[in-house]
Structures are given as structure tokens and as C-alpha cells.
Amino acid sequence: MKTAHRRVYIIGAGFSGKGIAQEMISSGALGSVVAFVDDDPSLRGKMWEGIPILGPIGDIQRHLTSIPADEAIIAMPSVSHEVLKRVYGTLTDVGLVTIRILPHVSQIIDGPPRIIQTRELDPQDLLGRDPVTISLKRSLSYLRGKRVLITGAGGSIGSELSRQLLSGGAQRLYLFDHEENSVYEIDKELKLLQNAGVGEAATVVPVVGELKDRDFVDFILGRLKADVIFHCAAYKHVGMLEANPVEAIKNNVFGTKFLVESALKHDVSRLVLISTDKAVDPSCIYGASKMLAEEIVLSASHERGDYMVVRFGNVLDSRGSIVPLFRRQIESGGPVTVTDAQVSRYFMTIPEAASLVLKAGGVGTGGTLYSLDMGDPILIRELAEQMIRFYGFEPHREIAIEFIGLLPGEKRAERLYSDDERPVSTPYRRINRVIRNPRFNGELTSLISSLEPVCFHSDETSDQYRNRHVLRARLAHYIPSIGAPDDEPEY
User: Can you tell me the distance from the alpha carbon of 270 to that of 304, in angstroms, rounded to the nearest whole number?
Assistant: First the structure.
């Protein structure tokens, strides 16, 4: 956080802007608010707590000559992407390098905004569509007083679910991840947010462990007595999992299997699996692993009614996604690498995806697959061009874009539904229910059993252990779209 000598313009003199200013005044250590700037002519020329309200935003250069500032905080959480782009362009044109933003109203739940919730403006704030606004305090009422477990809590979706769950009134939040540092970071962040007055008084409990360890999963679920599980944990990188297919199946399929079995055993009343559009007619091991994970969760509905799946496409700026990759490439002078000029993907922001998952988890019914409305797909080439411009360069002239060819297992375009699936709208914006029939003709158990000796060692089947060729052949028998290349190595 900036120190008190920083002179700050707050863009937006409404409830949010005044809330941020009041906190800065009270603290005295977060910078000095020297002016509000707002387009509302009825506010112009007035004072609030001794701070002048200037305007319009387009005249900010003139105001800076009389009231200098070092940085700006954009406190307009309901503003559209188009207005945000205009405001950002104005601020950068006048030389304000440090620009912070208070996230969209759907991300700050229903409480007063806090300075700790502001962050540096990012390309994702200017990309894509305007996110849906959800009253999460109302949506999360089904979690009040409950014990909630988030697997993959250190990842992009898991960590955002954790932040938003602070306002749900849960009794306990269990942050489960196999990566120690990720758990440490989100645990520390949630406690800082709570100390700053964000959310409610949930007990946050970090848990480091492996879903692939069946005994541990059964033990920990017995101890934690979770009421609700959001299952976000998965290996996700398409290229990496093509090179490590056995580990992909072991983690994504058997990790899900062990979690569901233990959840049923220990009376977990609700489980929500986070899935992906790559599970639709999968062309890669990752997609196949998520297709199987979907079936495992949905088939558990005959034993318990509230186990469901929420499927969606890419999220902007997730760890390891193309947004941080493009950022690094731009910062190093390029080129920005795109696999194919026509490749496209569905995108939404991480907070919007998390909000919709939480909403679906409360209104959804067991045994149902839900799909989030992702809007129109975006050409990756155009995303690269927009990011290059965000960082102040001209695409193709100052920063080159290089087309490197589709990667193994990659499609030019993804789909949210297969030909034998049919989306129907629900009363809830951007949440669709998918009408479908179970896959694998009742042979899901047989398929998973055939993969087990490849993923777990047994003296009786040691010749199959870690054998990639065997794994691919068995998967391709049930999921022909992934193929079984002749040159697939054994190990």
C-alpha cells in the first residue's frame, strides 16, 4: 500500500469513492485524497469532508495543473467496460502511471468497499463483456453456518471462491491444496481481508494434502465434517498433460473418485465440481480426464441428491493462462506467440466465474450439469492485439505476433455442449441447465477400473504401471476423439 505522501485522485464521488476516501482519511497512512473527479454535473464544484469534487473526467489534465496528484483510484464498481476503457485512456494520457481500481460490484459483495480490495488495473478489466451483478450475500445464504471445503483453494478459481465465501457466513472455510505455498498465500490473504473488515467471522483452516492419496482423503473428510465441497483441484495445462497423461488421469479422475467416495461416506450434503469446455468431445488428455470427472460426480446423484457439475470456458488471467504469458512476452519486447490465426476461446473474468459457481451451487439440483453462459468466443489473435495496446505498444509494428501452430491436443475452437447435449435456460442469469444422457453406456466403472493399474502400482499388474500407451488405448476405446497415436511412448 502507498504511504501517506502519495497524492491521490479518486475517480467517482459516489458511495464507493467516498467509502474509500473515508477509510484513507481515518487511517492517515494510506495516502492523501486531494480530489474526487466525477462526470456527474450535479456534484461538480461541491466539497466532501474538505475534498473538492472536480469534473468532468475528460478535463483531468486541467485539474492536475492546480491540484497535482501522483496516482488515481477508480472507484466506480458498476461501470461498463467501455466507460472504464475511456477513463483509463484519459488517466494514462495525462501521465498518471499508478492506477488502482475497486473491483466490480459483484466482486465486493454487499458490504462497504475497503482500500485493501483495490488493486492495480489489469488488462482483464478492459477485456470481454460486462460481468453480471450478483447479490452474493443473498446467494450464499445456503452456506450460512456450514463447513465449506474448497479443493484447489490456492488456484485461480479456488482462491476467488475463498475470497467471496468470506461474506457467506460460513462457520469454517477449509482451504485444501497440494501446493504448500499456494495454501499459505490464500490463507494469509483471507486473514488480512478479515482483519480489514471484509466479510464475516469464519474460521479459516489451511489443509495441505493430496487428493490422489485415498487414505488421506478419507481420513481428512472424516475429521473436517464438511457440509459442502467445491471441487476446483485439477491439473489443467493441456500441453503438459499430453506429455504426462498418467499423472493427469491419476490426479483429475482418481482424485475426484476418492473425494466423491469419501464425501458420500461422511455425509457431505452438497458437492460442486468445476469443469471445463474441454470436456466436450475432448481432443486431449485433460479434456478426457474432466469428462470422466463429470461422470463420476453426476453418477453419485443416485446416492445423494446434491452433487452437481458447473462447466465453463477459460477465465482471464488465471495462473498459467495466455494472459500472463502474453504479459511476460510483451514486457520482454515480444514476439507474442499465438498458435493459430483462427483459434478462439470463451472467456470470462475469474470473479464472475466464481460468483456464478457459488450461485449455481445454491440453486442447483443434484445430478445436474450446469453450463455458464460465456457470451461469444474471442479470437486469441485479437486478445493479443488488445493486450499489446493496453501496454502502450502498436501490434505488428512495435510488438510482433508470431503464429506457431496448434499444439498437441489443442482445438481451433471449443464448444460448451456436445451434439447430444441441450442447454436450457434457468431463472438465473448466465446459468444454463444441460439436458443430457449418461455417457459410457453404464461402463464408467469398468473404464475407471481399467485405468487403475496404470496409475497405481500392483505386483499383479506391474507391467501396466505408468504405461502411457496402455492408458491412451483404453481411454480411446471409450473416448475416440482423443485418439491413440502409434508413436505414443510406453513411459
Answer: 8
Q: Per the structure block, which three cell numbers stand in for 360?
A: 449455481
d(Cα 484, Cα 477) in Å, to the nearest integer?
Answer: 9
DSSP letter, residue 418: -
pLDDT digits (tens, 9 = 90+) for 394-407: 999 999 999 999 99
Structural domain including 53 reads 7-121
Identify the H or E element spanning 434. Answer: strand 431-435
Q: What is the pLDDT of residues 275-323, one digit of tens each?
A: 999 999 999 999 999 999 999 999 997 777 699 999 999 988 787 788 8
Question: For 267, which DSSP code?
Answer: T
Question: Is residue 129 a part of any domain in this protein?
Answer: no
Residue ranges in 110-170 assigned as alpha helix (H):
136-139, 156-165
**Same structural domain for residues 428 and 455?**
no
Angle between helices 156-165 and 350-363 (to 10 degrees): 60
pTM (2 d.p.) = 0.89
Verify whether residue 2 is a known catalytic residue. Answer: no
Q: Per-residue pLDDT tens for 184-234? A: 999 999 999 999 888 888 999 999 999 999 999 999 999 999 999 999 999
Residues 202/170, Cβ–Cβ less than 8 Å: yes
The active-site residue out of 2, 18, 250, 278 is 278
C-alpha cell at 133: 451483478
CA-closest candidate to residue 357, choices 367, 372, 373, 374:
372
